[in-house]
Amino acid sequence: YVFRVVIVVQQCDPGGARNRSRLILRLPASEKAVCPELVQSEPCLLNTTCFTYQYRVSDWSTCQLSEGAICGEGSRSRLLDCVRSDGKTVELQKCRQFGLINKLQLLESCVVDCPVSCILTDWSPWADCSHTCGTQGHSVRTRRILQEAHEEGRPCPSQLTQTKPCPIRPCYMWLLNGWSACTVEV
């Protein structure tokens, strides 16, 4: 006997059956010989005689930039697999074959922020001394943050105020004695 076997594989329908058939290509030479059955059937058993298929997509990759770039626009991607119900990864064509239409986006644009260093104002002029004499006087100057650091840029310093002592100057007090008696000048 010469047979051509045709296997019809369908997406698994537990409780259903799958069939295969064969065609007689040449009749037996003896009339007493009987051809075996032309159609065979067996129940559909998930992960044994039949499988279901589904797409599995990976997480997004990191943002890929053009060669030599450290920031700016780029693209990121994710991978697509076709997974059989028993967990085995199979060729993508299997998922397409069963009408699992791929509507997943696998490539998209992204942006890597460019590093920005902290930007500060210039120091203000030194303020007047807090005391005009003695050793306790000090002068202060300040600056402000105009732009906070971003990404890998140089961070802002924690000190935005500077203080310095003032030159030591002696403090004088005038001591006045009481008034003298009034005198008349002639």
Automatic annotation (TrEMBL):
PROSITE patterns hit by this protein: TSP1
Protein name listed in UniProt: Spondin-like TSP1 domain-containing protein
Keywords: Disulfide bond, Glycoprotein, Signal
SUPFAM superfamilies in the record: TSP-1 type 1 repeat
InterPro entries (UniProt xref): Spondin/Thrombospondin_T1, TSP1_rpt, TSP1_rpt_sf, TSP1_spondin_dom
Domain Spondin-like TSP1: start-end pairs: 118-171
Pfam families: TSP1_spondin
PANTHER family in the record: SPONDIN (PTHR11311), THROMBOSPONDIN TYPE-1 DOMAIN-CONTAINING PROTEIN 7B (PTHR11311:SF7)
